Request: fold
Amino acid sequence: MSDMAKSKPAAKPAAEKTKKDPKIKNKESEAMDKKEVANMLGTLKCSKDPEKKEVLDYYKSLPRFDSQKSELLKKWKADKSCKWFGSYKESRSQEHSTTQEEVSGFATKFLV
Reply:
């Protein structure tokens, strides 16, 4: 019988049992993000407010895994009235124009 007792694996401490696997935590956060996105899109679709429709159109125009989508979701969760969208869109257009100016230009990077 002493051989059987030696072959059994040692019991894990309670602290290790309660720790969540990082993969499980990541899947749970992805599921929550999907729920929050679905909630946002459903709310925006049903709304008759033109600002909310504009946010929905802008969200749909973005590429699939764009970082702006998560930014829009965070801002929408903070303020669901979408009054922030005008300033958000303006700041984004300014960022886009400055990056275009830096990129355009003939041989600016390598001309020395």
